[in-house]
Specification:
Largest sheet: 6 strands, parallel
Number of helices: 7
Radius of gyration: 21 Å
Number of domains: 2
Mean pLDDT: 80
Shape: globular
Number of strands: 15
Strand order of the largest sheet: 10-9-8-11-12-13
Oligomer: single chain
CATH topology of the largest domain: Quinone Oxidoreductase, Chain A, domain 1
Helix content: 10-25%
Strand content: 25-35%
CATH superfamily of the largest domain: Medium-chain alcohol dehydrogenases, catalytic domain
CATH class of the largest domain: Alpha Beta
Order of helices and strands: EEEEEEEEHEHEHEHEHEHEHE
CATH architecture of the largest domain: Alpha-Beta Complex
Structural class: alpha/beta
């Protein structure tokens, strides 16, 4: 993948910093061109992740530079749970022995590339559509994908409702993300609250969780006839059997399974809109940050179990 800035444009060249000048994170860095000690640390999968010990932190050899390549020091990593499924049968996801994939922000420290020189900041690989007036239901609405899906639905003219697992998360969803309502599935009657918040039915269900919560929504009777269901979960359920259990006739609902990589070609298009929304204060974000790669395995597992609040990030 070609490295990019977050706005989709080629990374800018940053001015050289004096020796050991603090960075925005409070740490120090040497000026570009100074000798840099590089350790190639990786988090690898030992077995399908269910606990932190199923992942391991290993040190490998420093990669060799060739013409047209560069070496970047990671500054931030996003450990998104949907990138690492808990079973070995899900296609397209990493297997035991693989490095856990993560999108990150890095600073080039050595370069043999014509465009990206030392000091460049790069983004490396280390939407929902609806009609105005429709009702959109989003699970895991306080986390990265869910919060973005709900807010984009609002910006496109829909009415958005969230589902989250605590009162704190629901408060953030309604106060900061400004969704019309949020159901605390751990403390409220999900089916009753769906009838209250969506009396005419849900037109789109954007599922980020799967499992029992997905089953409860599908069997609740809250999905309108002709509704669309978007599955953004790690291990999507077989739609035919799931819909049959919910009393939905074949073809009565449209099911779309989302794979992030299928929409990679539209990243720049999305960023043009999202950056403008964010700059205008129309998009709220929430991050859950830990320090150091050594804490990444536990942080990833927490996110996979739904215990994070916001996008799980690792600051290095």
């Amino acid at each position: 993948m070609r490295p990019r800035r977050m706005d989709g444009e080629p990374p800018r060249q940053i001015a050289p910093a004096p020796l050991d000048v603090p960075t925005p994170t409070g740490k120090t860095r040497p000026f570009p061109g100074a000798p840099v000690t590089v350790r190639n640390l990786q988090v690898r999968i030992k077995r399908p992740p269910a606990r932190a010990t199923d992942l391991e932190l290993v040190e490998t050899e420093r990669p060799a530079l060739t013409n047209g390549s560069f070496l970047a020091r990671a500054l931030w990593l996003a450990v998104d749970p949907f990138r690492c499924a808990s079973d070995v049968l899900t296609p397209g996801l990493p297997r035991p022995g693989d490095v856990v994939p993560a999108r990150g922000v890095g600073e080039v420290i050595e370069s043999r590339h014509d465009v990206f020189g030392v000091g460049s900041v790069v983004v490396l690989d280390c939407g929902l559509q609806q009609r105005p007036g429709e009702t959109v239901l989003v699970s895991a609405a306080a986390n990265a994908a869910g919060a973005m899906a709900g807010q984009i639905a609002l910006l496109k003219g829909a009415r958005a409702i969230g589902i989250a697992g605590s009162r704190e998360k629901c408060d953030w969803v309604t106060r900061h993300a400004r969704l019309s309502g949020c159901i605390n599935y751990a403390a409220e009657n999900l089916e009753a609250r769906l009838r209250q918040l969506a009396p005419h039915g849900v037109d789109i269900f954007f599922d980020n969780v799967g499992g029992e919560l997905l089953e409860r929504v599908v069997t609740s009777g809250a999905l309108a006839r002709g509704a669309r269901m978007v599955q953004n979960s790690c291990t999507p359920a077989e739609p035919e059997a799931l819909l049959a259990r919910g009393g939905h006739a074949p073809g009565s609902l449209e099911v779309l399974r989302v794979d992030l990589h299928d929409y990679e070609h539209r990243r720049s298009e999305f960023l043009r809109e999202a950056i403008a929304w964010y700059g205008a204060g129309r998009i709220a974000t929430k991050d859950h940050v830990v320090e150091g790669l050594v804490n990444a395995p536990a942080h990833l597992l927490l996110a996979m179990q739904g215990g994070n609040f916001g996008r799980p990030l690792v600051r290095l």
